[in-house]
From TrEMBL:
The gene is LOC111601403. The keyword Oxidoreductase does not apply. This is V-type proton ATPase subunit a. It holds the Pfam family V_ATPase_I. It comes from Drosophila hydei. InterPro entries: V-ATPase_116kDa_su, V-type_ATPase_116kDa_su_euka. It is found in: Membrane. Signal peptide: none annotated. Belongs to the V-ATPase 116 kDa subunit family. Residues 690-699 have a biased composition (Gly residues). Keywords: Coiled coil, Hydrogen ion transport, Ion transport, Membrane, Transmembrane, Transmembrane helix, Transport. Residues 51-128 form a coiled coil. One of its GO terms (molecular function) is ATPase binding. Residues 680-704 are annotated as: Disordered. The chain crosses the membrane at residues 399-427, 447-467, 537-554, 566-589, 641-660, 737-759, 765-789.
Amino acid sequence: MGSLFRSEEMALCQLFLQSEAAYACVSELGELGLVQFRDLNPDVNAFQRKFVNEVRRCDEMERKLRYLEKEIKKDGIPMLDTGESPEAPQPREMIDLEATFEKLENELREVNQNAEALKRNFLELTELKHILRKTQVFFDEMADNQNEDEQAQLLGEEGVRANQPGQNLKLGFVAGVISREKLPAFERMLWRACRGNVFLRQAMIESPLEDPTNGDQVYKSVFIIFFQGDQLKTRVKKICEGFRATLYPCPEAPADRREMAMGVMTRIEDLNTVLGQTQDHRHRVLVAAAKNLKNWFVKVRKIKAIYHTLNLFNLDVTQKCLIAECWVPLLDIETIQLALRRGTERSGSSVPPILNRMQTFENPPTYNRTNKFTKAFQALIDAYGVASYREMNPAPYTIITFPFLFAVMFGDLGHGAIMALFGLWMIRKEKGLAAQKTDNEIWNIFFGGRYIIFLMGVFSMYTGLIYNDIFSKSLNIFGSHWHLSYNKSTVWNNNYLQLSPATSDYEGTPYPFGMDPIWQVASSNKIVFQNAYKMKISIIFGVLHMIFGVIMSWHNHTYFRNRLSLIYEFIPQLLFLVVLFFYLVLLMFIKWNRYSAKNDFPMTEACAPSILITFIDMVLFKSSKAPGKDCNVHMFAGQSFFQTIFVLIALACIPVMLLGKPIKIMQARKLANEEVQPITGSSDAEVGGMSNGGGSHGGGGEHHDEEEMSEIFIHQGIHTIEYVLGSVSHTASYLRLWALSLAHAQLAEVLWSMVLSLGLNKEGWLGGIFLTVVFAFWAVLTVGILVLMEGLSAFLHTLRLHWVEFQSKFYMGHGYAFQPFSFDTIIENGTAATGETE
C-alpha cells in the first residue's frame, strides 16, 4: 500500500560531514525538512557543546531584534512581510549582521536617551512655566490683601492690629510641583510636622504632563509654601523630597518673574523644535529597520537552528569530521543526497558527504505525508494517538466517514449550506487568511479545519435532501405520492386523520429521492415514522463501520505477519460481529422487503415481528411469539435453526479469543525450551510477532518474548472482555446518530414555529417591519444554536465514534511522530527547534 494508507518506511542513517561543509549541508537539509537528527551527546551539558558560542551570539542578535521590534510596534510602524524565506546566511555573514544590529541598537538607544533627556528638560520647563503663572496669581492676591490692610490702618477700623509685633516680619517660601494623588497626604504631613506654622497654597495644572521615563500621562498640581525661619525651611524641603515633589526657583520680584517666564517660553519653543527633529530621526531609523526586520528574524533563527543541530553531532578523532545519526524516509534518500551535494558545493569542500543506512531494532518514528487537504484529518487521528510504525492509517477513510456520520446527525439542507459556504469562503480566501497569522486560537482552529467544515456542510446538504428537511420544512420537488380521498373540510377538522398505504391514498411507488414531503404535515405520527427510520439506519451504519474496523485489523496482521493474531483474534472477532449484529442488520432489510401494507396475509404490516424482541429471544434461546393471530412467528424458513447456530458460533468465539493465542504462545515457548534453540521461521513470527514487511523494525507488531505468561493471559482476558462487551455497547453507541438527528430537527422546528412564524403571520407595512426584526432574531438563533452549538455537539459525537467505536478495532496508536529539522516549522513556531526526539 502507498504511504497514504500506511506511514512512510523510515531508515536510520549515519551521516559523515567535513567540518567546513557541515554548516551548508545542514542548511540545505533544513530547507528540505525531511531529516530528524538524533542527539549523540545526551550526557554533555548544553554549555559544554562545540557550537555553544555561536548559539549565544544568535541569542544576542535575537535580543537586539526583539528590542527593535518592540520600538517599531510602539510607534505603530507596519513591518514589511513579503512571505518569502531568505536562505540561511553563511557563517562569515554573521559578523556583518552583528555589526548591523549593534549599530542600529546603539543608534536607537542614543536617540531614545537624547529624546528622554529632552523630554525631561521639556517637562521641567513646562512645570516651571506653570509655577510662574500660578504663583503670580498668589502674589497678586497677597498684594491686594496688603493694600486692604493699609487702607484699614488709615481709616482706623476696629479689629485690625497693624502694629502687633511680627507684623512686618519677612516670610520665606518655596514653590514646586507634586503629583495630584499625593497632595492630600502632603498637606497633612506639612501641617503635622510644622505644627501649623506654614501656609500652603496650591493650584491644579489642567492639562496632563507626559512622564519622560514611561510616557504615561500624569496629573500634577503647583504649590507654594510660606514659612518663617531656616529650621522650617529645612523641614519643608525634606518633606518635599520625601513626597518626590519637584522644587523650582521662583523670584520674589514681579519683574524677575516676568523675565524668567519669557526666557522659559523661548527655551520651550527651542526644545519643541529639537524634539521634533529627534522624533523624525528616530522614525526614519525605525522605518528603515522595519523593512528588513522579518528577514533578519528568519536569518538569525535559521543560523541558530543550524548550530543547535550541529551540537547534536559527534566529532571524530581527527576533529575534522562531524558524525550524525538521523531518521529519513526511505523514498527520499536520493533527494537528501542531492541536498547534501548542493551544500558541499556551496561550501567549496572537495570531500563529499557520506550517508550510510544502518540496521536497527528501534521503532522508527511515524511519518504520514499530508497536504493542506489531508492535514486536518490526520490531525484528528494523531490527537487520539500517533500511529505505530507502518500501522494502518485511518485518515484516508476518515475523510469520507467523518463528514458522513456528522451529516447523519446534522442533516439539514439549509444549515448544511451555511456551513458549506463558510468553509468554501475560507478555502477561496485561504492565502490571504493564512498570511494574517493571527493569535486567535478559535479562529486558527476553524481555519485549520476549513476542508473538514466544507465537507461536513456538503454531506449535511445531502442528508438534508434525504430527510427532505430545510430549516424544518420540506421541498416538494417531485410531488407527493400520497393523495387525499377525503374532502377538505374533513381533513381540516380532523387532526388525527391517517392515510392508509393499503388504499388508493398511496400510489404504491416510493418517492424518487429522499422522504416524501407529505410527512412534513403529518402531525400525529411524523416523529414515530422518522424515529423508526433513523434508528434503523443508525444501527446499519454503526455495524458496517465496526465491521470495516475489524477488517482493517486484518491488514495489520497480514502486513506484520502475525499469524496468531490473525487466526485467534481477527477471525473470531469478525465472526462474533457478523453472526450477531450483522444478522440484526439483515433482519431489518428482510422485514422491509417482505412486509408491506399491500401484501396479502400473513405478510401484511400487522404481522411484521419486532426485530428487537426477535434479537433478544435469539440471544436467550427463547422461542418468539407471533405478533398477531394466525401470523407467522418467523420471517423466513429455518430462522430459528440459523439463529441457534449463530448464537452458538458467537459463544464459541469467546474462548478462542480468550485462550487461543496465550496457549499457542505457551506451547511455542515450551517447545523452544525443550529443543534448547530459538524458534525459527514462522514460529518466530507467531510467538513474537516481531517481523514485518517493512524491515527489521517491530512497528505495529506485538512483542511477547519478554512477557510473563500470566501477563499475557491477563492482557488477553482484558482484550476479550473489552471486545465482547464493547460490541454491544458500541452498537448501542451508534444510536447517538438517531438521537442527535431527532434533536436537531426538533430544535429547528421549534425555532420556526415559535419565532419566524410569528413574523410571517403579520400583515401590512407594520408586519414587514416586524418580520424583518423577527427574521434577524431567528437568523441569529439559527446560526448561533443550530449551526455552531449543534454543529460542535455533532462534531464531538462523530469524533467519539471514530476514536472509540471504529479505531479501537484495529488502531494501536503507540508510535511517536516524525519531527524533521525544518526551517518552515521553526519559523512558523518562532523557535529554534532542532527536530530532535528523545
